[in-house]
Specification:
The protein is α/β, with parallel strands linked by helices. It has two domains: 3-215 and 391-410, Rossmann fold, CATH 3.40.50.2000; 228-388, Rossmann fold (3-Layer(aba) Sandwich). 47% of the residues lie in helices and 14% in strands. It has 18 helices and 13 strands. The strands form two sheets. A seven-stranded parallel sheet has the order 3-2-1-4-5-6-7, with helices on both faces. Helix 2 links the parallel strand 2 (31-36) and strand 3. Helix 4 (84-93) packs parallel to helix 8, helix 7 (142-154) packs across helix 9 (179-186) and helix 14 packs across helix 17 (375-390). The longest helix is centred in the C-terminal third of the chain and has 17 residues, at 394-410. The two termini are 16 Å apart.
């Protein structure tokens, strides 16, 4: 069987999007390894996959290489930090990465569409096929989205780094002269969208464009159904779950949202709430009811299995899990694809959208009373969930096998 390497960052939401398909590939007999920064090691090993550390020569290797944090680190001006430039430069010429690849000898790389630039580098540097995995909502067609992502990545490269990238690609075969040419190479890699076509499809994108909607699953990841938090919940109460995601950083607006929810739950005798507050000090909140559970982290799938509704930032992975759990969602978008996801949720009748700047108790009360009071939200979630599950993993596995076979034919 084949050796498949997942190239990922350390954000939980990004990792979680890959665990399902990685598990199915492992069941097929393939050898799976995650190439990631050390911050991701515990989460990867917890799911039973092999972990291979990369980019350890960079001082920022302990950070998740997501764009916002990279930009902040880049502002410090240190070439030793994990910036967009140093990340791409490392993939282009890092001898340590060569040693890792030579040791594992992958037959195929799988990475997120967010890292399509890195996917192009991996494909043409090591002459191995690459499959992209998209779990986030976008409002742009694939070609336009690829151009935006590649431009954002490459604009930080030095002139020398840009020359190295183009020389490496041209030596591998493609005639590429600029970032738009790199973006065109992204379109040569199949993109698996782990969202239902009826929820997040972009008009005009199709299999002819290399875009494959392959549904979604939550049966494989560790669910933590026996977590102590789950045992403390009262099954006779309506559970409201609130989380602003793995990339959440406490600020005044989020604190207002949490406190408003606490105040509303205190008014409702038959409600209970789990609020994942991340790094926030719980002393900054006034807990007015024993029915409110403040936790730094929650076992999301297990909590959703008990929930009547969720308040979310609108991360695509979280919204997908709400749909699969049949749970209506109220979205307070924070950044990036959150706004696209919120619009889709409202358009599909799966929930409502709030405004983080207006998260008063009255606003929270109205939004939750509405999604809990109308059966149509839960009914619609169940309908979309059925579309989610209908295909199962077979289409995704078939496309990955095709990529493996094509790579073997070219070897």
């Amino acid at each position: 069987m084949a050796r498949i390497a997942f190239f990922v960052d350390a954000e939980y939401g990004h990792l979680a999007a890959t665990f399902e398909i990685a598990g199915y590939l492992k069941d097929q007999g393939h050898q799976i390894a995650y190439f990631a920064t050390t911050a991701a090691e515990a989460m990867i090993r917890e799911q039973g996959f092999d972990f291979v550390p990369i980019l350890t020569s960079l001082r920022g290797g302990r950070f998740a290489p997501r764009l916002e944090s990279l930009l902040e680190l880049n502002a410090e001006g240190s070439p030793a930090l994990l910036t967009p430039a140093s990340l791409c430069a490392a993939l282009i010429s890092d001898e340590a990465l060569d040693a890792v690849v030579d040791s594992f000898q992958p037959d195929l790389f799988i990475t997120l569409s967010l890292f399509c630039t890195e996917g192009v580098i991996l494909k043409y540097r090591y002459l191995k096929p690459v499959v992209l995995l998209r779990s986030h909502c976008v409002s742009l067609r694939r070609r336009t989205a690829a151009r935006h992502i590649v431009a954002a990545r490459t604009q930080f490269l030095s002139p020398q780094g840009t020359r190295q990238l183009l020389e490496m690609l041209n030596q591998a075969g493609p005639d590429v002269r600029d970032a738009s040419g790199v973006a065109e190479l992204v379109l040569r890699m199949p993109e698996l969208v782990v969202l239902p076509e009826g929820f997040a499809n972009i008009p005009g994108d199709s299999e002819q464009d290399g875009v494959f909607y392959v549904g979604g699953w939550t049966a494989r990841s560790k669910h933590w159904s026996t977590h102590p938090l789950i045992e403390r919940l009262d099954p006779s109460r309506k559970l409201i779950y609130c989380s602003l995601g793995s990339q959440y950083y406490p600020d005044g607006e989020s604190i207002t949202l949490f406190q408003s929810l606490i105040d509303v739950v205190a008014e409702k005798e038959d409600w209970e709430a789990v609020i994942s507050i991340g790094r926030l000090d719980p002393e900054q909140l006034q807990r007015r009811s024993a029915s409110v559970h403040l936790v730094p982290w929650a076992p999301q799938l297990a909590v959703l299995a008990r929930s009547a509704a969720m308040i979310s930032h609108g991360g695509s992975g979280t919204v997908a899990q709400c749909i699969l759990s049949g749970v209506p969602v109220v979205i307070f978008p924070v950044n990036r694809d959150n706004f696209d996801c919120a619009d889709l949720v409202v358009r599909r009748g799966l929930g409502l959208r709030g405004n983080l700047k207006e998260a008063s108790p009255s606003a929270i009360r109205y939004l939750l009373d509405t999604v809990l009071g109308k059966d149509s939200f839960r009914t619609r979630a169940a309908e979309v969930a059925e579309k989610f599950r209908r295909l199962g993993p077979e289409p995704a596995l078939r496309i990955i096998e095709a990529a493996l076979n094509a790579g073997a034919d070219q070897a």
